[in-house]
Amino acid sequence: MIHLENIAKSYVNGDIRVEALKNIHLHIEKGEFVAIMGPSGSGKSTLMNILGCLDVPSSGVFTIHQQRINDFSEVELAELRNQTIGFVFQTFHLLARLSVLKNVELPMLYRGVSPKERRKRAMELLGKVGLSDRLQHNPSQLSGGQKQRVAIARALANDPDIILADEPTGNLDTMTSMEIMDILSDLNKQGVTIILVTHEEEIATFASRVITVRDGNIIEDTKDALT
Amino acid sequence: MIHLENIAKSYVNGDIRVEALKNIHLHIEKGEFVAIMGPSGSGKSTLMNILGCLDVPSSGVFTIHQQRINDFSEVELAELRNQTIGFVFQTFHLLARLSVLKNVELPMLYRGVSPKERRKRAMELLGKVGLSDRLQHNPSQLSGGQKQRVAIARALANDPDIILADEPTGNLDTMTSMEIMDILSDLNKQGVTIILVTHEEEIATFASRVITVRDGNIIEDTKDALT
Ligand SMILES: Nc1ncnc2c1ncn2[C@@H]1O[C@H](COP(=O)(O)OP(=O)(O)OP(=O)(O)O)[C@@H](O)[C@H]1O
Ligand SMILES: Nc1ncnc2c1ncn2[C@@H]1O[C@H](COP(=O)(O)OP(=O)(O)OP(=O)(O)O)[C@@H](O)[C@H]1O
Ligand SMILES: [Mg+2]
Ligand SMILES: [Mg+2]
Description:
2 copies of one chain form a homodimer.
Chain A: E1 2-13, E2 16-28, E3 33-37, H1 44-51, E4 59-64, E5 67-68, H2 74-84, E6 85-88, H3 100-110, H4 115-128, H5 144-156, E7 162-166, H6 174-189, E8 193-197, H7 201-204, E9 209-214, E10 217-221, H8 222-226
Parallel strand pairs in A: 3-8, 3-9, 6-7, 7-8
Antiparallel strand pairs in A: 1-2, 1-4, 4-5, 9-10
Helix pairs in contact in A: 3-4, 3-5, 4-5
The complex binds adenosine-5'-triphosphate (2 copies) and magnesium ion (2 copies).
One adenosine-5'-triphosphate sits at the interface of chains B and A.
Protein backbone atom coordinates (compact mmCIF):
# COMPACT_ATOMS: atom_id res chain seq x y z
CA MET A 1 0.00 0.00 0.00
CA ILE A 2 2.80 2.44 1.01
CA HIS A 3 5.98 1.85 -0.97
CA LEU A 4 9.33 3.66 -0.75
CA GLU A 5 12.12 2.66 -3.09
CA ASN A 6 15.65 4.12 -3.15
CA ILE A 7 14.40 7.13 -1.25
CA ALA A 8 17.00 9.78 -0.39
CA LYS A 9 16.52 13.20 1.19
CA SER A 10 19.15 15.89 1.54
CA TYR A 11 18.85 19.34 3.01
CA VAL A 12 21.03 21.99 1.41
CA ASN A 13 21.22 25.48 2.97
CA GLY A 14 24.10 27.51 1.62
CA ASP A 15 27.15 25.41 2.40
CA ILE A 16 25.32 23.19 4.89
CA ARG A 17 24.42 19.82 3.34
CA VAL A 18 22.83 17.11 5.43
CA GLU A 19 21.92 13.71 3.97
CA ALA A 20 18.98 13.05 6.30
CA LEU A 21 17.89 9.90 4.43
CA LYS A 22 20.42 7.98 2.33
CA ASN A 23 18.73 4.95 0.78
CA ILE A 24 15.37 3.89 2.13
CA HIS A 25 13.45 0.83 0.97
CA LEU A 26 10.18 0.32 2.78
CA HIS A 27 6.92 -1.46 2.07
CA ILE A 28 3.97 -1.09 4.45
CA GLU A 29 0.72 -3.00 3.94
CA LYS A 30 -2.72 -1.63 4.75
CA GLY A 31 -3.61 -2.20 8.38
CA GLU A 32 -0.08 -2.64 9.71
CA PHE A 33 1.03 -1.14 13.04
CA VAL A 34 4.66 -0.07 12.62
CA ALA A 35 6.99 1.49 15.19
CA ILE A 36 10.02 3.47 14.00
CA MET A 37 12.90 3.77 16.45
CA GLY A 38 16.43 5.10 16.29
CA PRO A 39 18.86 7.69 17.66
CA SER A 40 18.15 11.41 17.80
CA GLY A 41 18.92 12.95 14.40
CA SER A 42 18.86 9.63 12.53
CA GLY A 43 16.13 10.63 10.05
CA LYS A 44 12.87 9.41 11.62
CA SER A 45 10.91 12.67 11.34
CA THR A 46 12.27 13.23 7.85
CA LEU A 47 10.98 9.77 6.87
CA MET A 48 7.61 10.59 8.48
CA ASN A 49 7.38 13.88 6.59
CA ILE A 50 7.86 12.03 3.31
CA LEU A 51 5.34 9.33 4.24
CA GLY A 52 2.92 12.09 5.23
CA CYS A 53 3.38 13.89 1.89
CA LEU A 54 4.60 16.99 3.73
CA ASP A 55 7.97 16.89 2.05
CA VAL A 56 9.31 15.48 -1.21
CA PRO A 57 12.25 13.09 -1.45
CA SER A 58 15.40 14.30 -3.25
CA SER A 59 15.31 11.03 -5.24
CA GLY A 60 13.59 7.66 -5.33
CA VAL A 61 10.04 6.43 -5.86
CA PHE A 62 7.17 6.89 -3.43
CA THR A 63 3.78 5.31 -4.08
CA ILE A 64 0.57 5.00 -2.06
CA HIS A 65 -2.01 2.50 -3.41
CA GLN A 66 0.27 2.26 -6.48
CA GLN A 67 -0.13 5.99 -7.25
CA ARG A 68 3.20 7.75 -7.77
CA ILE A 69 3.16 10.52 -5.18
CA ASN A 70 6.28 12.04 -6.78
CA ASP A 71 4.04 13.19 -9.65
CA PHE A 72 1.34 14.83 -7.53
CA SER A 73 0.72 18.56 -7.68
CA GLU A 74 0.59 20.68 -4.52
CA VAL A 75 -3.20 20.63 -4.63
CA GLU A 76 -3.35 16.85 -5.01
CA LEU A 77 -0.90 16.40 -2.13
CA ALA A 78 -2.94 18.68 0.12
CA GLU A 79 -6.10 16.75 -0.70
CA LEU A 80 -4.43 13.39 -0.04
CA ARG A 81 -3.10 14.65 3.28
CA ASN A 82 -6.47 16.02 4.31
CA GLN A 83 -8.52 12.96 3.43
CA THR A 84 -6.24 10.01 3.94
CA ILE A 85 -3.54 10.92 6.43
CA GLY A 86 -3.67 12.02 10.07
CA PHE A 87 -0.36 13.50 11.28
CA VAL A 88 0.69 14.02 14.90
CA PHE A 89 3.76 16.26 14.82
CA GLN A 90 6.72 15.94 17.20
CA THR A 91 6.30 19.62 18.08
CA PHE A 92 2.48 19.71 17.81
CA HIS A 93 2.10 22.68 15.37
CA LEU A 94 -1.22 23.82 16.83
CA LEU A 95 -2.59 27.15 15.61
CA ALA A 96 -1.94 29.69 18.34
CA ARG A 97 -4.88 31.95 17.58
CA LEU A 98 -7.53 29.22 17.51
CA SER A 99 -9.16 27.54 20.49
CA VAL A 100 -8.54 23.87 21.21
CA LEU A 101 -11.94 23.07 19.69
CA LYS A 102 -11.31 25.07 16.51
CA ASN A 103 -7.87 23.49 16.11
CA VAL A 104 -9.47 20.05 16.00
CA GLU A 105 -12.30 21.23 13.70
CA LEU A 106 -9.91 22.73 11.15
CA PRO A 107 -9.16 19.60 9.04
CA MET A 108 -12.92 18.99 8.75
CA LEU A 109 -13.50 22.56 7.57
CA TYR A 110 -11.27 21.88 4.56
CA ARG A 111 -13.29 18.77 3.77
CA GLY A 112 -16.56 20.74 3.76
CA VAL A 113 -18.09 19.18 6.88
CA SER A 114 -21.01 21.20 8.36
CA PRO A 115 -20.31 23.37 11.44
CA LYS A 116 -22.66 21.25 13.55
CA GLU A 117 -20.99 17.99 12.50
CA ARG A 118 -17.48 19.43 13.00
CA ARG A 119 -18.23 20.58 16.50
CA LYS A 120 -19.82 17.27 17.43
CA ARG A 121 -16.88 15.21 16.18
CA ALA A 122 -14.26 17.56 17.65
CA MET A 123 -15.92 17.40 21.07
CA GLU A 124 -16.11 13.62 20.85
CA LEU A 125 -12.40 13.32 19.99
CA LEU A 126 -11.33 15.78 22.68
CA GLY A 127 -13.43 13.81 25.15
CA LYS A 128 -11.55 10.65 24.15
CA VAL A 129 -8.18 12.26 24.93
CA GLY A 130 -9.45 13.67 28.25
CA LEU A 131 -9.69 17.34 27.31
CA SER A 132 -13.45 18.06 27.54
CA ASP A 133 -12.72 20.77 30.10
CA ARG A 134 -10.21 22.60 27.90
CA LEU A 135 -12.30 23.20 24.75
CA GLN A 136 -12.16 27.01 24.83
CA HIS A 137 -8.54 27.26 25.95
CA ASN A 138 -5.95 28.63 23.63
CA PRO A 139 -2.89 26.35 23.03
CA SER A 140 -0.72 28.71 25.14
CA GLN A 141 -3.04 27.98 28.06
CA LEU A 142 -2.36 24.25 28.00
CA SER A 143 0.25 21.98 29.53
CA GLY A 144 2.75 20.25 27.19
CA GLY A 145 0.92 16.95 27.36
CA GLN A 146 -2.43 18.66 26.77
CA LYS A 147 -1.07 20.29 23.58
CA GLN A 148 0.12 16.87 22.50
CA ARG A 149 -3.33 15.42 23.06
CA VAL A 150 -4.98 18.18 21.02
CA ALA A 151 -2.55 17.33 18.20
CA ILE A 152 -3.62 13.69 18.47
CA ALA A 153 -7.34 14.55 18.42
CA ARG A 154 -6.80 16.77 15.37
CA ALA A 155 -5.00 13.96 13.52
CA LEU A 156 -8.09 11.77 13.96
CA ALA A 157 -10.58 14.43 12.84
CA ASN A 158 -11.08 13.25 9.24
CA ASP A 159 -11.14 9.54 10.08
CA PRO A 160 -7.88 8.89 8.23
CA ASP A 161 -6.77 5.57 6.69
CA ILE A 162 -3.19 6.22 7.76
CA ILE A 163 -2.04 7.76 11.04
CA LEU A 164 1.52 9.03 11.29
CA ALA A 165 2.42 9.83 14.90
CA ASP A 166 5.84 11.33 15.70
CA GLU A 167 6.61 10.72 19.41
CA PRO A 168 2.89 11.04 20.37
CA THR A 169 3.56 10.17 24.04
CA GLY A 170 6.82 12.13 24.51
CA ASN A 171 5.16 14.55 26.92
CA LEU A 172 2.66 12.22 28.56
CA ASP A 173 2.73 10.38 31.87
CA THR A 174 2.43 6.60 31.69
CA MET A 175 -1.30 6.38 32.39
CA THR A 176 -2.25 9.00 29.79
CA SER A 177 0.16 7.35 27.29
CA MET A 178 -1.65 4.05 27.74
CA GLU A 179 -5.01 5.76 27.05
CA ILE A 180 -3.60 7.18 23.81
CA MET A 181 -2.10 3.82 22.78
CA ASP A 182 -5.50 2.17 23.43
CA ILE A 183 -7.14 4.67 21.07
CA LEU A 184 -4.52 3.89 18.39
CA SER A 185 -4.83 0.12 18.94
CA ASP A 186 -8.61 0.32 18.52
CA LEU A 187 -8.23 2.25 15.29
CA ASN A 188 -5.69 -0.30 14.08
CA LYS A 189 -8.16 -3.13 14.81
CA GLN A 190 -10.65 -1.25 12.62
CA GLY A 191 -8.15 -1.34 9.75
CA VAL A 192 -6.31 1.98 10.12
CA THR A 193 -2.61 1.81 9.24
CA ILE A 194 -0.48 3.23 12.07
CA ILE A 195 3.13 4.36 11.76
CA LEU A 196 4.57 5.78 14.94
CA VAL A 197 7.98 7.07 15.97
CA THR A 198 8.89 6.42 19.57
CA HIS A 199 11.97 6.09 21.73
CA GLU A 200 10.13 4.15 24.42
CA GLU A 201 10.12 0.33 24.38
CA GLU A 202 6.78 0.13 26.23
CA ILE A 203 5.15 2.12 23.43
CA ALA A 204 6.84 0.15 20.63
CA THR A 205 5.34 -3.09 22.02
CA PHE A 206 1.90 -1.96 20.78
CA ALA A 207 3.21 -2.31 17.22
CA SER A 208 3.44 -5.56 15.29
CA ARG A 209 6.61 -4.47 13.50
CA VAL A 210 9.62 -2.37 14.51
CA ILE A 211 11.86 -0.53 12.07
CA THR A 212 15.17 0.85 13.32
CA VAL A 213 16.73 3.86 11.60
CA ARG A 214 20.33 5.02 11.98
CA ASP A 215 22.21 7.69 10.02
CA GLY A 216 19.56 7.95 7.31
CA ASN A 217 19.21 4.22 6.68
CA ILE A 218 16.98 1.41 7.88
CA ILE A 219 19.32 -0.92 9.73
CA GLU A 220 16.74 -3.36 11.07
CA ASP A 221 13.17 -4.41 10.30
CA THR A 222 11.51 -7.06 12.45
CA LYS A 223 9.36 -8.01 9.44
CA ASP A 224 12.48 -9.35 7.72
CA ALA A 225 13.45 -11.27 10.82
CA LEU A 226 10.21 -13.21 10.73
CA THR A 227 10.14 -14.15 7.04
CA MET B 1 17.77 26.67 50.16
CA ILE B 2 14.60 26.66 48.01
CA HIS B 3 11.46 27.03 50.09
CA LEU B 4 7.81 27.13 48.97
CA GLU B 5 5.10 27.61 51.55
CA ASN B 6 1.33 27.67 50.89
CA ILE B 7 2.02 28.32 47.24
CA ALA B 8 -1.04 28.61 45.00
CA LYS B 9 -1.23 29.57 41.32
CA SER B 10 -4.38 30.27 39.34
CA TYR B 11 -4.76 31.28 35.74
CA VAL B 12 -7.70 33.53 34.99
CA ASN B 13 -8.56 34.37 31.37
CA GLY B 14 -12.01 35.88 30.99
CA ASP B 15 -14.33 33.29 32.48
CA ILE B 16 -11.73 30.53 32.38
CA ARG B 17 -10.21 29.94 35.82
CA VAL B 18 -7.75 27.11 36.38
CA GLU B 19 -6.21 26.42 39.79
CA ALA B 20 -2.96 24.98 38.46
CA LEU B 21 -1.35 24.80 41.93
CA LYS B 22 -3.55 24.63 45.02
CA ASN B 23 -1.37 24.43 48.12
CA ILE B 24 2.28 23.58 47.66
CA HIS B 25 4.76 23.11 50.52
CA LEU B 26 8.24 22.24 49.36
CA HIS B 27 11.73 22.50 50.77
CA ILE B 28 14.75 21.65 48.64
CA GLU B 29 18.30 21.70 50.03
CA LYS B 30 21.37 22.76 48.06
CA GLY B 31 22.80 19.87 46.07
CA GLU B 32 19.67 17.72 45.99
CA PHE B 33 18.61 15.82 42.86
CA VAL B 34 14.82 15.88 42.75
CA ALA B 35 12.49 14.27 40.18
CA ILE B 36 8.95 15.60 39.79
CA MET B 37 6.39 13.21 38.34
CA GLY B 38 2.63 13.24 37.84
CA PRO B 39 -0.18 13.15 35.29
CA SER B 40 -0.39 15.44 32.29
CA GLY B 41 -1.91 18.76 33.37
CA SER B 42 -1.26 18.22 37.08
CA GLY B 43 0.84 21.37 37.57
CA LYS B 44 4.45 20.26 37.12
CA SER B 45 5.49 22.91 34.58
CA THR B 46 3.63 25.58 36.55
CA LEU B 47 5.62 24.57 39.65
CA MET B 48 8.84 24.66 37.61
CA ASN B 49 8.03 28.14 36.27
CA ILE B 50 7.63 29.42 39.83
CA LEU B 51 10.83 27.70 40.98
CA GLY B 52 12.62 29.20 37.98
CA CYS B 53 11.33 32.71 38.78
CA LEU B 54 9.59 32.87 35.40
CA ASP B 55 6.17 33.24 36.93
CA VAL B 56 4.85 34.56 40.25
CA PRO B 57 2.59 32.57 42.56
CA SER B 58 -0.96 33.87 43.18
CA SER B 59 -0.29 33.47 46.92
CA GLY B 60 2.18 31.96 49.36
CA VAL B 61 5.83 32.49 50.20
CA PHE B 62 8.77 31.65 47.96
CA THR B 63 12.35 32.02 49.18
CA ILE B 64 15.74 31.09 47.75
CA HIS B 65 18.68 31.26 50.20
CA GLN B 66 16.20 32.89 52.61
CA GLN B 67 15.56 35.81 50.22
CA ARG B 68 11.86 36.43 49.62
CA ILE B 69 11.53 36.14 45.84
CA ASN B 70 7.95 37.49 46.06
CA ASP B 71 9.49 40.92 46.75
CA PHE B 72 11.94 40.94 43.83
CA SER B 73 11.59 43.45 41.00
CA GLU B 74 11.56 42.34 37.36
CA VAL B 75 15.19 43.34 37.04
CA GLU B 76 16.24 41.42 40.14
CA LEU B 77 14.34 38.34 38.94
CA ALA B 78 16.00 38.49 35.52
CA GLU B 79 19.42 38.75 37.14
CA LEU B 80 18.72 35.83 39.49
CA ARG B 81 17.52 33.71 36.56
CA ASN B 82 20.53 34.59 34.46
CA GLN B 83 23.17 33.93 37.10
CA THR B 84 21.77 31.20 39.30
CA ILE B 85 19.25 29.17 37.34
CA GLY B 86 19.52 27.12 34.16
CA PHE B 87 16.12 26.25 32.67
CA VAL B 88 15.40 23.54 30.09
CA PHE B 89 11.90 24.19 28.78
CA GLN B 90 9.40 21.46 27.87
CA THR B 91 9.00 23.10 24.47
CA PHE B 92 12.62 24.30 24.11
CA HIS B 93 11.95 28.02 23.36
CA LEU B 94 15.02 28.42 21.16
CA LEU B 95 15.37 31.69 19.24
CA ALA B 96 14.45 30.95 15.64
CA ARG B 97 16.64 33.62 14.07
CA LEU B 98 19.85 32.69 15.86
CA SER B 99 22.20 29.82 15.04
CA VAL B 100 22.57 26.93 17.46
CA LEU B 101 25.87 28.45 18.63
CA LYS B 102 24.39 31.91 19.21
CA ASN B 103 21.43 30.41 21.08
CA VAL B 104 23.81 28.84 23.59
CA GLU B 105 25.97 32.01 23.82
CA LEU B 106 22.99 34.25 24.59
CA PRO B 107 22.81 33.79 28.41
CA MET B 108 26.54 34.59 28.60
CA LEU B 109 26.07 37.76 26.57
CA TYR B 110 23.73 39.10 29.27
CA ARG B 111 26.36 38.35 31.89
CA GLY B 112 29.02 40.34 30.00
CA VAL B 113 31.24 37.41 29.02
CA SER B 114 33.71 38.21 26.19
CA PRO B 115 32.85 36.98 22.66
CA LYS B 116 35.91 34.69 22.65
CA GLU B 117 34.98 33.14 26.01
CA ARG B 118 31.31 32.73 25.02
CA ARG B 119 32.17 30.95 21.80
CA LYS B 120 34.62 28.64 23.56
CA ARG B 121 32.16 27.64 26.27
CA ALA B 122 29.21 27.28 23.86
CA MET B 123 31.27 24.98 21.60
CA GLU B 124 32.37 22.93 24.59
CA LEU B 125 28.77 22.49 25.82
CA LEU B 126 27.43 21.66 22.36
CA GLY B 127 30.23 19.11 22.03
CA LYS B 128 29.08 17.53 25.30
CA VAL B 129 25.54 17.06 23.98
CA GLY B 130 26.81 15.70 20.65
CA LEU B 131 26.03 18.67 18.42
CA SER B 132 29.49 19.84 17.27
CA ASP B 133 28.43 19.34 13.66
CA ARG B 134 25.30 21.48 13.96
CA LEU B 135 26.77 24.78 15.27
CA GLN B 136 25.71 26.94 12.33
CA HIS B 137 22.32 25.35 11.85
CA ASN B 138 19.18 27.29 12.60
CA PRO B 139 16.74 25.63 15.08
CA SER B 140 14.33 24.89 12.21
CA GLN B 141 17.08 22.81 10.62
CA LEU B 142 17.34 20.46 13.58
CA SER B 143 15.59 17.29 14.66
CA GLY B 144 13.33 17.40 17.75
CA GLY B 145 15.92 15.77 19.93
CA GLN B 146 18.66 18.07 18.61
CA LYS B 147 16.57 21.13 19.57
CA GLN B 148 16.14 19.61 23.01
CA ARG B 149 19.89 19.16 23.35
CA VAL B 150 20.55 22.79 22.34
CA ALA B 151 18.09 23.83 25.07
CA ILE B 152 20.06 21.70 27.54
CA ALA B 153 23.41 23.17 26.49
CA ARG B 154 21.98 26.70 26.80
CA ALA B 155 20.73 25.98 30.33
CA LEU B 156 24.30 25.10 31.35
CA ALA B 157 25.90 28.16 29.74
CA ASN B 158 26.24 30.32 32.88
CA ASP B 159 27.32 27.48 35.16
CA PRO B 160 24.13 27.69 37.23
CA ASP B 161 23.71 26.60 40.87
CA ILE B 162 20.22 25.28 40.11
CA ILE B 163 19.13 23.41 36.99
CA LEU B 164 15.41 23.10 36.29
CA ALA B 165 14.77 20.62 33.48
CA ASP B 166 11.22 20.05 32.24
CA GLU B 167 11.06 16.67 30.43
CA PRO B 168 14.68 17.05 29.13
CA THR B 169 14.68 13.57 27.54
CA GLY B 170 11.11 13.60 26.14
CA ASN B 171 12.40 13.60 22.56
CA LEU B 172 15.57 11.57 23.00
CA ASP B 173 16.35 7.94 22.30
CA THR B 174 17.56 5.89 25.24
CA MET B 175 21.28 6.16 24.53
CA THR B 176 21.23 9.93 24.07
CA SER B 177 19.03 10.25 27.20
CA MET B 178 21.64 8.41 29.22
CA GLU B 179 24.38 10.77 27.96
CA ILE B 180 22.28 13.74 29.11
CA MET B 181 21.56 12.14 32.49
CA ASP B 182 25.29 11.49 32.95
CA ILE B 183 25.97 15.20 32.35
CA LEU B 184 23.33 16.13 34.96
CA SER B 185 24.63 13.53 37.43
CA ASP B 186 28.18 14.88 37.11
CA LEU B 187 26.95 18.42 37.74
CA ASN B 188 25.00 17.19 40.76
CA LYS B 189 28.15 15.55 42.14
CA GLN B 190 29.83 18.96 41.84
CA GLY B 191 27.11 20.48 44.01
CA VAL B 192 24.56 21.73 41.47
CA THR B 193 20.93 21.37 42.60
CA ILE B 194 18.88 19.54 39.97
CA ILE B 195 15.09 19.55 39.74
CA LEU B 196 13.72 17.63 36.80
CA VAL B 197 10.25 16.77 35.56
CA THR B 198 9.96 13.41 33.87
CA HIS B 199 7.33 10.81 33.11
CA GLU B 200 9.91 8.05 32.66
CA GLU B 201 10.86 5.82 35.58
CA GLU B 202 14.34 5.10 34.17
CA ILE B 203 15.07 8.84 34.24
CA ALA B 204 13.61 9.35 37.73
CA THR B 205 16.02 6.73 39.12
CA PHE B 206 18.90 9.21 38.66
CA ALA B 207 17.30 11.39 41.34
CA SER B 208 17.67 10.85 45.08
CA ARG B 209 14.14 12.08 45.76
CA VAL B 210 10.84 11.82 43.87
CA ILE B 211 7.94 14.24 44.30
CA THR B 212 4.56 13.28 42.84
CA VAL B 213 2.10 16.01 41.81
CA ARG B 214 -1.60 15.53 41.13
CA ASP B 215 -4.30 18.15 40.56
CA GLY B 216 -2.13 21.01 41.77
CA ASN B 217 -0.96 19.36 44.98
CA ILE B 218 2.04 17.31 46.08
CA ILE B 219 0.59 13.93 46.95
CA GLU B 220 3.83 12.10 47.66
CA ASP B 221 7.43 12.93 48.53
CA THR B 222 9.92 10.11 48.98
CA LYS B 223 11.87 12.36 51.36
CA ASP B 224 8.99 12.11 53.87
CA ALA B 225 8.90 8.37 53.44
CA LEU B 226 12.48 8.05 54.60
CA THR B 227 12.33 10.34 57.66
N1 LIG C 1 -2.01 30.24 30.73
C1 LIG C 1 -2.88 29.34 31.20
N2 LIG C 1 -4.19 29.64 31.30
C2 LIG C 1 -5.08 28.73 31.77
N3 LIG C 1 -4.76 27.50 32.17
C3 LIG C 1 -3.46 27.13 32.09
C4 LIG C 1 -2.46 28.01 31.59
N4 LIG C 1 -1.26 27.36 31.61
C5 LIG C 1 -1.51 26.13 32.10
N5 LIG C 1 -2.83 25.99 32.38
C6 LIG C 1 -3.48 24.83 32.97
O1 LIG C 1 -2.84 24.56 34.22
C7 LIG C 1 -2.77 23.16 34.43
C8 LIG C 1 -1.35 22.78 34.80
O2 LIG C 1 -0.50 22.98 33.69
P1 LIG C 1 1.00 22.49 33.69
O3 LIG C 1 1.61 22.97 32.42
O4 LIG C 1 1.67 22.90 34.95
O5 LIG C 1 0.85 20.90 33.71
P2 LIG C 1 1.95 19.75 33.63
O6 LIG C 1 1.86 18.93 34.85
O7 LIG C 1 3.27 20.34 33.27
O8 LIG C 1 1.42 18.87 32.42
P3 LIG C 1 2.22 18.05 31.27
O9 LIG C 1 2.74 16.81 31.92
O10 LIG C 1 1.12 17.76 30.29
O11 LIG C 1 3.29 18.93 30.72
C9 LIG C 1 -3.25 22.48 33.16
O12 LIG C 1 -4.49 21.88 33.40
C10 LIG C 1 -3.35 23.59 32.13
O13 LIG C 1 -4.46 23.44 31.27
N1 LIG D 1 15.84 21.86 7.31
C1 LIG D 1 16.97 21.17 7.62
N2 LIG D 1 18.17 21.61 7.16
C2 LIG D 1 19.30 20.92 7.44
N3 LIG D 1 19.34 19.80 8.16
C3 LIG D 1 18.17 19.32 8.65
C4 LIG D 1 16.93 19.98 8.42
N4 LIG D 1 15.94 19.27 9.05
C5 LIG D 1 16.54 18.22 9.65
N5 LIG D 1 17.88 18.24 9.41
C6 LIG D 1 18.87 17.27 9.84
O1 LIG D 1 18.47 16.00 9.31
C7 LIG D 1 18.78 14.97 10.26
C8 LIG D 1 17.55 14.11 10.49
O2 LIG D 1 16.56 14.88 11.14
P1 LIG D 1 15.24 14.19 11.70
O3 LIG D 1 14.38 15.30 12.22
O4 LIG D 1 14.63 13.32 10.65
O5 LIG D 1 15.78 13.27 12.87
P2 LIG D 1 14.98 12.39 13.95
O6 LIG D 1 15.42 10.98 13.77
O7 LIG D 1 13.52 12.67 13.87
O8 LIG D 1 15.56 12.90 15.32
P3 LIG D 1 14.87 13.09 16.78
O9 LIG D 1 14.77 11.72 17.36
O10 LIG D 1 15.89 13.94 17.48
O11 LIG D 1 13.57 13.76 16.59
C9 LIG D 1 19.24 15.65 11.55
O12 LIG D 1 20.61 15.41 11.70
C10 LIG D 1 18.94 17.13 11.34
O13 LIG D 1 19.97 17.97 11.86
MG1 LIG E 1 12.22 13.61 15.14
MG1 LIG F 1 4.46 20.26 31.60
